[in-house]
Write a structure and sequence with these properties.
With 67 residues, the protein is an alpha+beta fold. The chain has one domain (11-65). Helix content is 16%, strand content 39%. The protein has a 5-stranded antiparallel sheet. A hairpin with a 5-residue loop joins strand 3 (33-38) and strand 4 (44-48). The longest helix is centred in the last third of the chain and has 7 residues, at 49-55. The termini are far apart.
Length: 67
């Protein structure tokens, strides 16, 4: 089971890339469903929390984001 620590506006990397060519997303809504926004093209996707937890690869921290 994945134990990722994420909050609203966290940037995450998903296991599978988006057709626009990036796999970097920003969390825009938290709840039973999680809404994420592609940082490449701006498309939004709504996923059930269980599915999101299965598909997430990594949470980008502030230190990693500034490099």
């Amino acid at each position: 089971m994945n134990n990722h620590e994420y909050t609203l506006n966290s940037k995450v990397i998903m296991k599978k890339g988006h057709p626009c060519g990036t796999n970097l997303w920003q969390i825009t809504r938290l709840g039973a469903d999680i809404k994420i926004k592609c940082l490449g093209c701006g498309r939004t996707v709504l996923l059930p929390r269980i599915e999101f937890n299965r598909k997430i690869k990594k949470v980008i921290t502030e230190e990693e984001g500034t490099r």
